[in-house]
Amino acid sequence: MNSQEERDQVHQRIEQWKLRPPKLNDKVITMAHGAGGKASQALTDAVFLSAYGGAQLDRLEDGAVLDVPAGKRIVFTTDAFVVTPRRFAGGSIGDLAVNGTVNDLAVMGATPQWLTVSAVLEEGLPIDELRDIVADVATAAATAGVTIVAGDTKVVERGAADGCYLTTSGIGLLDADTNLGAEHVRPGDVVIVSGSIGDHGMAIMLARGNLNLEADIASDSAAVHEAIRALLDTVPSTRWIRDPTRGGLASTCNELAVGASVGVSLFEESLPVKPPVAGACELLGIDPLYVANEGKFAAVVPAEDVDAALAALRSVPVSAEAVAVGEINDEHPGMVVAHTPFGGSRIVDMLVGAPLPRIC
Amino acid sequence: MKFVSEFRDPEAAKALIADITEQAADQPPRKFMEACGGHTHAIYRHGIETLLPESIEMVHGPGCPVCVIPMGRIDDAIAVASIDKVTMCCFGDMLRVPGGTSTLLEAKANGADVRVVYSPLDALAIAEQEPDREVVFLAVGFETTAPSTAVTALQARERNVENFSIFCNHVTIVPPMKAILDSPGMSLDGFLGPGHVSTVIGTGPYEFVSRDYGLPLVTTGFEPVDILQGVSMLLRQLSEGRAEVENQYKRVVRDAGNPAALKLLAQVFELRPHFEWRGLGFIGQSALALNADFAYFDAEKRFTVPGVQVADPKACQCGEVLKGAIRPWECKVFGTACTPETPIGTCMVSSEGACAAYFNYGRFRAKKRIPVRST
């Protein structure tokens, strides 16, 4: 190792080694993965880019440049995902993070196009689990036809977060003539839901595992933009669409009643609740109207277009079980009233706090 | 779910409503008290009040276990939950019940380890899994839930789970019914008797209602058809001049109750000399404590419990509501100072509480009946 030549060889090897893409050999997330150095780069390459990299993302620039077609408006939304447990029957935090934002764009009448994904990771998170979550993000994005164009990763110390939080922002393109909103809703209009309610919330409650209940209940996590496209193409007069996530259909209908100053009547016998979900809700003393959904939407259409709307929705798998569940009226503005099968009625109010199970 | 749909059968309900309407037409106005919070909840949840003839008034009784807990006991529970290393396990309903100064939910936000369980056995399991914690189960409820607490105490003793204890607030249903019947101005015509409590204690303990007070009582289930049938049976007794204890809920309730559960209660609990009830004041021999054999598991003996006594807020008329003297919306603070978001009284907290049930489900009727869509 005396000659200049030998030293040059060594330096050359070092330089070559430095140029190699960093390798991810770690088993768990450490603070190093958030420090912005080689470890961060390795994590980005091996986990995120390998799952959903593309022309935009692979450039690793500070922002994505997107071409918006002439005549289109953009719809822009963001959502944070902190679900526990991270994996449950029917989905994971990964597909939820994509579908949630895709659906927020879709119910605005937009065609979802681009997403950003930010991850806050807790020190100690197994990297294999992160790979699985990121794979779900990639699959859901591919299924929904959206491109992930930017992202970020931060690591926080153990105890400062619960494993993995994801935030997705999304941009969708909106036709100039699409104009949905509560202000268009009129008495006599009909409320439709795209399928069974309460599946996601009950799947999560069961997955938390402290109920000692076993039931065949899976989350309905899914992107609904194709169903909404089919609805809007067939029934352009559709007034309003919303996805009943947290707070369930009851909260969504209350927001509609207040926002549009109309009354909403729901007919209990029409509400689609799968028997295992109904049974679990009954046992826990929880009303399925208040349970979260992640692959459903509610829409209001003029009464004369109900049949066309249902036919359009039923032609798309994700909304194959769409049904009419209620009517808009001017009798009790700002209020949602449910009618029981034998003619009783009750107010369906906004939920106060979290849904707490009853004692007996 | 099997065993639910048939008790929500619209045809059966319609036939019973027709029968009730016909019977009520030949009788003076009637006031019936439903004993259980579960009844109250079902009545509002299914809109049953909107179906009954106007001459029949349902009065909501004392049987919501959350509603009858006095504020001082909540403050005591918060004090215990705030002790270092204590994990307080309770049913979900209890989290938002207001004590004198705060709630268990606020205590949790301030760092107390308060966890929701669905069974006392879950609390025992937590104690076994986390031996360095002092796990306390906040026991509430009538004879319905007391046997499961008793089983838990027995298992804790059997498995020698030293870091487990019970903060016992179990109450019994008969003394408050007596207190209500003895209160001045009582004007009830009959009772829908407790359903699930009766599965444990049977129907015998209610004989005094017919014998001493000359009123009919029908032990009734919790589905819409059960409740309508219970009302129909009360009307029939009154029209035939009878005052008996009848059992509508025969598919679940046996006249002798559940001897095994009663034996468990006797084995683990003893009657307290007196216990404070929200709104009703102190009632003698109306609550249970762990007996000497299980004193080791008694949180009130293990920890320093402040024994807080808080006078019910002056404006709050929970007591009058619980006695059936006034209806929820007749309370001075109903819907103004006292709402489900900022409850003053316990009746506004649990969905079984008369006030919360009325606020959430029932208040619409007071304004207007709406037409029923033909199906």
SSE blueprint:
The complex is a heterodimer of chains A (360) and B (375).
Chain A: H1 4-19, H2 38-52, E1 73-81, E2 87-88, E3 91-92, H3 93-106, E4 111-122, H4 127-144, E5 147-156, E6 164-174, E7 190-193, H5 199-207, H6 225-234, E8 240-242, H7 248-260, E9 263-267, H8 275-284, E10 298-301, H9 306-314, E11 323-329, E12 336-339, E13 345-347
Parallel strand pairs in A: 4-5, 9-12
Antiparallel strand pairs in A: 1-6, 2-3, 4-6, 7-10, 7-11, 8-10, 9-11, 12-13
Helix pairs in contact in A: 2-4, 3-4, 3-6, 6-9
Chain B: H1 10-25, E1 30-36, H2 37-45, E2 56-63, H3 71-81, E3 86-90, H4 104-109, E4 113-116, H5 120-129, E5 134-141, H6 146-158, E6 164-170, H7 174-182, E7 190-193, H8 196-201, H9 207-213, E8 217-219, H10 224-239, E9 245-247, H11 259-268, E10 269-271, E11 274-277, E12 281-284, E13 288-290, H12 299-302, H13 318-323, H14 354-367
Parallel strand pairs in B: 1-2, 1-7, 3-4, 3-5, 5-6, 7-8, 8-9
Antiparallel strand pairs in B: 10-13, 11-12
Helix pairs in contact in B: 1-10, 2-14, 6-11
User: What is the count of β-strands of chain A?
Assistant: 13
Number of domains of chain B: 3
Q: Strands of the largest sheet of chain B, in order across it?
A: 2-1-7-8-9
Please give the CATH class of the largest domain in chain A. Alpha Beta
Strand order of the largest sheet of chain A: 8-10-7-11-9-12-13
Main sheet record of chain A: 7 strands, mixed
Strand element count of chain B: 13
Oligomer: heterodimer
Mean pLDDT of chain B: 88
Give a brief rundown of this model.
Chain A is of the alpha+beta class and 360 residues long. Helix content of chain A is 32%, strand content 21%.
